[in-house]
Amino acid sequence: MAAGVDCGDGLRARQYVFLLPEYLKDASKKMKNGLMFVKLVNPCSGEGAIYLFDMCLQQQLFEIKVFKEKHRSWFINQSVQSEGHLHFATPMDPLFLILHYLMKTEKEGKFQPLDQVVVDDTFPNCTLLLKLPELEKLLGHVTEEKEIDSKKYYKYSKEKTLKWLEKKVNQTIVALKTNKINVGARVQSAAFFPGDQASSDKEEDYIRYAHGLISDYIPKELSDDLSKHLKLPEPSASLPNPPSKATAQRQRRNK
User: Fold this and answer.
1) To which H or E segment does residue 97 belong?
2) Predicted pLDDT at 6
3) What is the rounded CA–CA span in Å between residue 231 and residue 171?
4) Exposed/middle/buried for 182, CB within 10 Å: 0-12, 13-18, 19+?
5) Which of 15, 36, 86, 206 could form a disulfide with 4 if both were Cys (CB 3.0 to 4.6 A apart)?
6) Are strands 13-19 and 86-91 parallel, antiparallel or unpaired?
7) Which residues contact 202 (CB under 8 A, 6 or more apart)?
8) Do 57 and 22 meet the contact criterion of CB atoms below 8 Å apart?
9) In terms of DSSP bridges, do strands 48-54 and 35-41 run parallel, antiparallel, or are they unpaired?
């Protein structure tokens, strides 16, 4: 679904075009704040990024990706929007954002209630993550848990987190193979090229490529630990490293 989002700046209303899942089209109609665009921390860079919360239907978190192309405009109703970017909203596992806060408390080495862990003066809307109904079930993948007087306390577990990330890598590998995505180093992973060449890719190529994609959602320190956990050898000096997903998207846009 394409939607124009009015983001008034006080002087002139700016509009953006979003491609959203079909089931979200009625969310704003059913609830005043059914869809909320908020700035949260990017778990990889630590900087701010825009995310979308569906607080009405499936109560889900979405990341926003932007496709930019030069010399493009949109006709929205009776106006022309000079910024012709196309925004995509895709579902995102909230654990990646929760991990950012859990890892910050790792040095304390103590169990804490989650509402004391997920606190951020720079991005106060982080507390919306705690309202996602599936979050409590997911926390067991990355934390140790204790319950005292019916209240739950959590502590970051590096061991559990690496096992969970390994599963994410394996799921990504299955998707790459199913869609016949060529991940060989000779392609430099600058774009997803489906085709017969995918059958000749080595298993290490798939692991390394999937690791690169997952690394877009975790800090570099954890990415390095995951690489060791996966027993990935150092890439050959004669072959380039598969770029992150963000780099691959930029290279595709510049072609």
Assistant:
1) helix 95-104
2) 44
3) 17
4) buried
5) 15
6) parallel
7) 184
8) no
9) antiparallel
Rounded to whole angstroms, the Cα distance separating 212 from 183 reads 11
* Per-residue pLDDT tens digits for 230-253: 998 876 654 555 555 545 454 445
In the prediction, which pLDDT does 21 show?
A: 72
3-class SS of residue 197? helix
Tens digits of per-residue pLDDT, 195-230?
A: 444 445 588 899 999 999 999 999 999 999 999 999
Q: Do the Cβ atoms of 26 and 105 come closer than 8 Å?
A: no
Tokens 């059958």 sit at which residue? Answer: 199
Using the predicted structure, report yes or no on whether residue 74 has a pLDDT greater than 50. Answer: yes
Q: 239 near 208, Cβ under 8 Å? A: no
Give the pair of three-digit tokens for residue 48.
């701010």
Q: Is 197 within 8 Å of 182 (Cβ atoms)?
A: yes
Both structure tokens of 190: 């600058």
Cβ-proximal residues to 131 (8 Å cutoff; 6+ apart), any chain: 55, 59
235 or 192, which is more confident?
Answer: 235
What letter would DSSP give residue 184? -
Give Cβ neighbours of residue 225 (< 8 Å, ≥ 6 apart).
158, 162
